[in-house]
Specification:
The complex is a heterotrimer. By secondary structure, chain A is mainly α. Chain A has 13 helices and six strands.
């Protein structure tokens, strides 16, 4: 089918673009664009996570910043303690800091997954706009907790001096770090692809469209949605851990509802429910923000106008514009 | 802690709740009738405050400023509805979220462009700047009582509008079944513009009234937006009664939390820590309330489409 | 926005991002120019730009290129812009950040990479103490200074039963800690409010109940405006004290007469009697049509500090020499004499000002000194 081919081609082009530009910049010695590429990849990864719940699962979570931030804090706290040489917890179990990347990622995945299970268990009892609001409420609670408790810096956050490493790779090298982020992004998209194409994905799609019918076939929608929600949170949490390493600090700003909104924007801009949508959305948003921001301090106005135009006139986001409506087969 | 203190805090809760109601009433109307998520509601609140401040400064009268704020907010609302919202009715919530999020950016920066980066001066009218003596000593500012009055009048007026007028009947019909009233010959587009403008007017009213008490600055709408959504969701979307009760609940929880939580903690912890934890918990309190309500009643307390 | 040489420099730098111009000293300014709180960043930028204009587009006789970008008060955006300035544009000096949390995100790694950072505002305790760095200079104050001075002054006035409030975030906690460090009396109450809170009815009722003889608060921006207005309506008679942050020129306009008589501490006031300040205030008013705030004075001093160092060394190539010249701080500050302490924070007098009306305009007038030759509480933790 021509639409499918077009979408696949465009997806490949996007993936190549995101790889080629930073590589090219690195060859030219412009390391700033390599870290900018890493930033785009990380934000796209956060969007891929959200897309799983929102795009494929129909669960409009306005609180994904909670998982982004929790993943960030998990990695950040461990890294901080590794630098200070102190232990995170002495009781009930000895938990030390770490500068091994895999440990940081595992912590981020674990923390965001566990909290998502709790939040999802309660929130998925609601639907529609109520679901949107209750996910926002939980994210706000976590945000205010992080701001108010001084142990890890409160609103100031924590500066982090170490980049982690694993298997001989040192993430303080900008190119290595970018390639790792890019690799994870593609991995997450592969995971989404396989999930969506599996029986689980079919059940999820059905849950998105009509829960009653899914129940009629004998599959309870609640566990399906909860699983998707938790997986989506874990992917976004992983992005948070990477983000914290990129910036060298973690702060409650990562937990704000504006960040939840921005991740949603990447997904919507790119195309909701499109596999590579978050990449397109993240690239477009970051490019717009950076370019317009360099020209005028009124950049938020122009950014708003452009976003509005995209929503009004480019249904289905960038990928929808280029490749037409999604085909399901 | 005296009875007078507790009484004053209860009065404060009522006043905060009523202010929240005026902020939220417009939002719940728009939600309920048009199924629209309008993140720009906070921006309309800001527009009301800014125009009130500007005109009050130029004319010297708060009340003229208030009228100007209402007019500006309603006009902005009508404009937004005609230019943007109209295209979004049959789109899903996500598109509405993105579109209205962009409107926040546009309104914020636009306001800064027109009015400058510094906060504007807006004060309550001198006639209302005194206090009424409270039992037990101290005084309660008259202006806050006026706000309570405004809120109650607004609630009553809305109730009359919705249940006793033809417009209200159309609004209620629209909440139940949008397509049907179109089929029955009601001019949907004018109805929707009117409802949206009404919601905007309420937001502007809240902005002007509250701005005189607090501050008028760019971005003042965002915290209010979140609060309004919390109130609407607790109360049940589309229900004015729900918005009122939800608002008063939120006002109670927030005010009493701020006033008494740290004293609760002080029973077990040293004062500095009690203050810190008390402040932390009280900032989370309304979200806890919302989570508890939704866990118990997933559609809010008084949902319209139960 | 008046076009000035900064604007031309910005346009030029847009057109040629990657060319290293041989003799130009590159300065990157990251500050808040949009959204709430942008008034502070705009003031800092305008003060800085005025000094550049007075130097004929140069600082210390040296050609400079100034790049300015807006951080929108977001720490990761500030970091991103800093990375761009450092890695792509190869700036020599960074400056501009308003907020402590953004400064903590940007400064530690920036100064480690060899770039000089001159802070025109944010002075978090970490950067004055444990995280101090030889490349980091703060031309304004350490965050606690203004609160410490007020604690001293309130005690010196014989007031013994103060009620103090601040928002529940690090700067707020530091403010109350700073006040208590020098205040010798009792506390009628100590309250942490919610960050961004604008309705203080509950807190005011508690204050009235506690019957303090004085009120000290740190509530920046809109929070302070709301609190002052509500305090004025509450009928509470106790005298009010605070740092300049809630009573600067931009805020006073929004609070109105409710602010009259309030005492606030600041390291600068427009009525400071020295030649540099007179020129500054007059030129600022002529250039921008408004009175300068303390933020503008800090931006101005930052530029003049850089100018004085450049005049001595001719450039930044010899980092050690430039650093020494910065430390010497041989310039006419609008505060009068200026010197740095060992942790590169100023040792200065902190004045007490009172809010008065001059004609139609609300402004501040010095009525006393809070602390003389004051350093900061974290200097001893700094090992450079």
């Amino acid at each position: 089918m021509p639409e499918m081919r077009r979408e696949t081609l465009f997806n490949a082009a996007l993936a190549l673009l995101l790889l080629a530009l930073p590589l090219g910049a690195w060859l030219l010695g412009e390391s700033y664009y390599v870290s900018l590429g890493a930033r785009v990849a990380i934000l796209a990864l956060a969007g891929v996570g959200l897309n799983l719940a929102l795009g494929f699962g129909g669960m409009v979570s306005f609180g994904h910043a909670a998982f982004f931030g929790l993943g960030g804090y998990a990695a950040g706290v461990l890294s901080h303690h590794a630098f200070e040489g102190s232990a995170v917890l002495n009781w009930p179990v000895m938990l030390e800091g770490s500068d091994s990347t895999l440990v940081l990622w595992a912590a981020a995945l674990f923390l965001s997954g566990v909290v998502a299970a709790a939040i999802g268990a309660i929130s998925l009892r609601t639907s529609g706009v109520y679901f949107i609001m209750i996910t926002l409420a939980f994210a706000q609670m976590i945000f205010y907790m992080a701001v108010s408790l001084p142990t890890y810096g409160g609103e100031d956050g924590l500066p982090l001096y170490l980049r982690s490493g694993f298997a001989g790779l040192d993430l303080s090298d900008e190119l290595v770090f970018f390639l790792v982020c890019y690799g994870l992004l593609l991995l997450a998209i592969l995971l989404s692809f396989r999930l969506v194409g599996s029986r689980f994905g079919a059940a999820l799609e059905c849950a998105r469209q009509n829960e009653t019918r899914l129940g009629a076939v004998g599959i309870a929608p609640y566990p399906v949605k909860l699983t998707a929600f938790v997986l989506s949170a874990m992917i976004t949490g992983l992005a948070g851990a990477l983000f914290v390493e990129l910036n060298g600090f973690v702060s409650p700003a990562m937990l704000s509802w504006q960040v939840s909104g921005e991740i949603m924007i990447f997904v919507i801009l790119g195309g909701v429910g499109r596999l590579y949508g978050p990449i397109a959305g993240a690239i477009l948003f970051i490019v717009l923000e950076t370019v317009i921001g360099g020209y005028t301090e009124r950049w938020q106005l122009f950014l708003g106008v452009i976003l509005l135009m995209v929503v009004l006139f480019a249904r289905g986001g960038v990928i929808g514009l280029v490749a037409g409506k999604a085909r399901h087969d | 802690m005296s009875a007078a203190f507790i009484f004053e805090q209860l009065l404060n809760s009522l006043q905060l709740g009523v202010m929240l109601f005026v902020m939220a009433a417009g939002l719940t109307l728009v939600f309920g009738v048009m199924g629209l998520i309008n993140l720009a509601h906070g921006s309309l609140y800001m527009v009301g405050a800014f125009f009130c401040a500007w005109v009050a400064g130029v004319s010297g009268s708060f009340w003229i400023g208030l009228l100007a704020g209402l007019a500006a907010a309603a006009a902005a609302g009508a404009l937004v509805e005609m230019l943007v919202m109209r295209r979004l009715y049959d789109r899903d919530h996500l598109d509405q979220v993105l579109a209205t999020f962009s409107l926040i950016l546009i309104f914020n920066e636009g306001t800064r462009w027109i009015f400058g980066a510094q906060p504007l001066y807006l004060d309550i009218p001198a006639a209302l700047a005194t206090s009424v003596p409270l039992p037990g000593g101290g005084g309660y500012p008259i202006y806050r009582l006026v706000i309570i009055a405004f809120g109650v009048v607004t609630a009553f007026a809305l109730y009359l509008l919705i249940s006793r007028t033809k417009l209200g009947m159309q609004i209620r019909a629209g909440e139940s079944d949008r397509e049907m009233i179109g089929a029955l010959g009601v001019d949907i587009s004018t109805l929707y513009t009117l409802v949206f403008a009404l919601g905007a007017l309420l937001a502007g009213l809240a902005g002007a009234l509250v701005g005189a008490l607090q501050s008028v600055e760019v971005g003042m709408g965002e915290p209010v937006l979140i609060l309004a959504f919390v109130v609407v969701v607790i109360g049940g979307i589309g229900s004015i009664k729900g918005a009122l009760i939800g608002a008063i609940l939120v006002g109670l929880v927030d005010t009493l939390g701020r006033a008494f939580l740290h004293q609760l903690f002080a029973l077990a912890l040293p004062p500095a820590e009690a203050n810190g934890y008390g402040a932390a918990l009280s900032s989370m309190s309304i979200y806890l309330l919302m989570a508890v309500v939704l866990a118990w009643r997933p559609k809010g307390l008084f949902p319209v489409n139960a | 926005m008046k076009k000035n040489l900064i604007g031309l420099a910005v346009a030029a730098s847009m057109a040629m991002p990657a060319f290293a111009q041989a003799e130009n000293v590159k300065i990157g300014m990251i500050t808040t120019l949009s959204g709430g709180g942008s008034g502070l960043g705009i003031d800092i930028r305008d003060g800085f730009a005025l000094a550049v204009k007075q130097g004929g587009g140069k600082l210390g006789g040296q050609d400079i290129e100034v790049m300015i970008e807006d951080d929108a008060r977001k720490p990761d955006k500030a970091k991103q812009i800093a990375d761009k300035f450092i890695q792509r544009d190869k700036v020599d000096i960074l400056t501009g950040i308003v907020w402590s949390n953004l400064a903590l995100a940007v400064v530690p790694s920036a100064v480690k990479s060899g770039v000089f950072y001159i802070s025109p505002n944010a002075g978090p305790s970490q950067l004055a103490g444990k995280l101090c760095d030889e490349n980091y200079f703060n031309v304004a104050w350490q965050n606690d200074n203004l609160h410490e001075a007020m604690g001293e002054y309130v005690s010196s006035q014989g007031l013994k039963n103060a009620y103090i409030l601040a928002p529940n975030y690090p700067a707020g906690k530091d403010a109350l800690a700073g006040f208590k460090r020098f205040y010798k009396g009792e506390l009628a109450g100590e309250t942490f409010t919610k960050l961004g809170q604008k309705d203080y009815a509950a807190e005011l009722a508690a204050i009235r109940e506690a019957k303090p003889d004085s009120i000290f608060f740190f509530l920046p921006g809109g929070m302070g405006i709301a609190f002052m207005k509500q305090l004025a309506q509450s009928g509470i008679e106790a005298p009010v004290f605070g740092p300049a942050f809630s009573f600067d020129q931009g805020i006073l306009g929004a609070v109105g007469d409710a602010a009259l008589g309030v005492k606030n501490t600041s390291q600068w006031s427009k009525d400071l009697d020295n030649a540099a300040n007179k020129v500054f205030v007059a030129d600022f008013q002529k250039e921008y049509g408004r009175l300068p705030s303390l933020y503008a004075s800090q931006g101005y001093d930052a530029a003049r500090l850089i100018a004085s160092a450049l005049a001595t060394t001719g450039g930044v190539k010899d980092a050690a020499a430039f650093r020494k010249a910065l430390k010497a701080a041989d310039f006419e500050s609008v505060r009068g004499a200026f010197k740095f302490g060992p942790n590169h924070h100023p040792i200065q007098d902190i004045y007490v000002r009172e809010v008065v009306k001059e004609g139609d305009v609300l402004t501040n007038r010095i009525v006393g000194v809070g602390l003389k030759n004051h350093s900061d509480a974290y200097a001893s933790e700094c090992v450079m």
